[in-house]
Amino acid sequence: MSGSSIEALDLAALLCSRVCHDLISPVGAIVNGLEVLAEAKDEETKTFALDLIRKSAGTASAKLQFCRIAFGAAGSAGAQIDLGDAESISRGFLEDDKTKLAWNLPRALMPKNRVKLLLNMLLIAGQTISRGGKLTIDPIGSGESMGFKVSAAGTNAKVPPAMPALLTGEAGAEALDAHRIQPFYAGLLAKACGVKATMAMDGETVVVSAQ
């Protein structure tokens, strides 16, 4: 790998590593819950184990649904994806007691690469508010060429040092790993869509945009 380019096999391997990293925790929790359930001798322990399995299975399912579109093929070439479906899986994956989404996009069919880009922008923005907060998704323009603006507001929201350069493709591919591949991949998606992706602070809010 050199410059901002990356071999297809390296890209595939790093993206797979990223998805596996996301899934290890909930799947591991399911395994632990099953072990506890097998050894449980009282109803309270059984209830605890079942709750752990149920919650972890839900988390794993939400992550798989999100990753299927964010990183997967998600249909044939030229396929379109409903922004309403993108909202649903984004809420399932990103919303919790600490983080909420304000989804201001119209319900419409969009080219799959633009929706993939949007989901990757949400992942990037979510990483900037480690203590939770609010992610606001606004349209830039309209129609199939619509761009996106994702604003992340939360306590100590900040832009990770290397992320803007990874997003714009200015960072060299030689330093990529399973953690850094995601913003780099988002930059590749932006180029494929013919838009420019940027990331910067706006006051105390992190703004990730593509237009």
Structure write-up:
The chain has 211 residues and is α+β, with helices and mostly antiparallel strands. The chain has a single domain, classed as 2-Layer Sandwich (Heat Shock Protein 90), CATH 3.30.565.10. The strands form two sheets. A five-stranded mixed sheet has the order 2-4-5-7-6. The chain has a two-stranded antiparallel ribbon with strand order 1-3. It is globular, with a radius of gyration of 18 Å. The mean pLDDT is 90.
Quick structural summary:
The chain has helices at 8-39, 43-70, 83-94, 112-126, 163-168, 181-193; strands at residues 80-82, 99-103, 109-111, 133-140, 147-153, 197-202, 205-210.
Task: Supply the key terms.
Heat Shock Protein 90, alpha+beta, 6 helices, 18% strand, 5-stranded mixed beta sheet, 211 residues, 7 strands, 50% helix
Output the structural class: alpha+beta
The CATH homologous superfamily is called Histidine kinase-like ATPase, C-terminal domain
Q: Total strand count, please? A: 7
Global Rg: 18 Å
Detail the poorly predicted runs. none
Helix content: 40-55%
The second-level CATH architecture is 2-Layer Sandwich
